[in-house]
TrEMBL record:
This is Redox-sensing transcriptional repressor Rex. It comes from the Bacteria. Residues 18-57 bind DNA. The keyword DNA-binding applies. It is found in: Cytoplasm. The keyword NAD applies. Belongs to the transcriptional regulatory Rex family. GO terms for molecular function: DNA binding; DNA-binding transcription factor activity. The gene is rex. Keywords: Cytoplasm, DNA-binding, NAD, Repressor, Transcription, Transcription regulation. GO terms for cellular component: cytoplasm. Residues 81-182 form the CoA-binding domain.
């Protein structure tokens, strides 16, 4: 009988890469075991939240002992498919896109940008930060050629849905959307939107709330 996949809360899922990163740090520092309190202090996440997150995956630690660092490292590597590299395409090489190309992700993660698209590209393509950049007209062709399933979208807002419509005809399964546009996609494609202006406004709101709370309690 096929085992049902674990139903993990979305908030927990978003923290998994962070756990993996900090556990790597503990491993690199030579730590053999770590407590939820030590993770809490390093990550600035409540220890009860960490224990609750870990509980979704069964017994990852032992009471009075904590967590074995190498066991956690192997667990999260497998859970996050860190041993399998994922090729990513970048669409839109403006200021933000250029920053992505210069950073690239494979230095610290299992993902790497292998191809990019921009209207500024020459007919035969060009190289930026050792990444080939092609005209948008070659989008479908190159996505197939490079076996792309994940895309970072940093195009102007007016072009976002049009580009997404073209991606629907390809093998792409996920879009990391850095435009403010709420993209319309089929259920077969997952979209994560990061709207920087909304994030900034949210941060400003919380800062003001903190200031009001501090003033009220003073």
């Amino acid at each position: 009988m096929k085992q049902e996949p674990l139903k993990i809360p979305q908030a927990t899922t978003k923290r998994l890469p962070l756990y993996y990163r900090f556990i790597q740090n503990f491993s690199n520092a030579g730590k053999k075991r770590v407590s939820s309190q030590e993770l809490s202090e390093a990550m600035k996440i409540d220890s009860a939240t960490i224990r609750r997150d870990f509980s979704h995956f069964g017994a990852l630690g032992k009471k009075g002992y904590g967590y074995d660092v190498q066991h956690l490292l192997a667990f999260f590597r497998q859970t996050l498919d860190q041993d399998e590299e994922t090729n990513v395409a970048l669409i839109g090489v403006g200021s933000l896109g250029t920053a992505f190309l210069k950073y690239n992700f494979h230095k610290n993660h299992n993902t790497r940008i292998v191809v990019a698209f921009d209207t500024s590209a020459t007919e035969d393509g060009m190289m930026l930060s050792d990444i080939p950049v092609f005209e948008p007209s070659k989008l479908e062709e190159k996505i197939q050629e490079y076996g792309i399933e994940l895309v970072i979208l940093t195009v102007p807002s007016r072009a976002a849905q049009e580009v997404t419509d073209r991606l629907m005809t390809t093998s792409v399964k996920g879009i990391l959307n850095f435009t403010p546009v709420r993209l319309t996609v089929p259920d077969s494609i997952r979209v994560h939107t990061i709207d920087l202006s909304v994030e900034l406004q949210t941060l400003i709101y919380f800062i003001k709330q903190d200031e009001e709370t501090f003033t009220h309690n003073s």
